[in-house]
Amino acid sequence: MAKSFKPSVITANALLEGDVVYLQGDDWVRTLDAAEILTDEADAEIRLLEASARVEEVVGVYLTTVDTTGGTIKTTHFREAFRATGPSNYAHGKQESA
Asked: For 12-44, b where at least 16 C-beta lie within 10 A, e where not — what string?
């Protein structure tokens, strides 16, 4: 039996800054809570292809699942939680503003 499609977001790294970014419409945003949640697999695949073609803006584009329980967006994998908080060597960037 095929796995059902779970809510997902498109993520990548900004080419110039290296920041983790998420797709929202036609724009890249820097926080998970601002990301566009994709619930249709066919739409998600098309959006992923379109986002992957934006090589002047981002690298490493991929789809990742999220949990939308309780009205908030949360990552479902440790890697994504780690990426969202930024580098771990010392507090800077996203970690300074938290």
From this structure: bbeeeeebbbbbeeeebeeebeebbebeeeeeb
Distance CA(93)–CA(4), nearest Å, equals 36
Q: How far apart are CA 86 and CA 98, in angstroms?
A: 11
For the chain, the first-to-last Cα distance in angstroms comes to 42
Give CA–CA dist 68/73, Å, rounded: 5
φ/ψ (deg, to 5) at 5: -75, 135
pLDDT in tens, 80-94: 888 877 666 656 556
Q: Model pTM?
A: 0.85
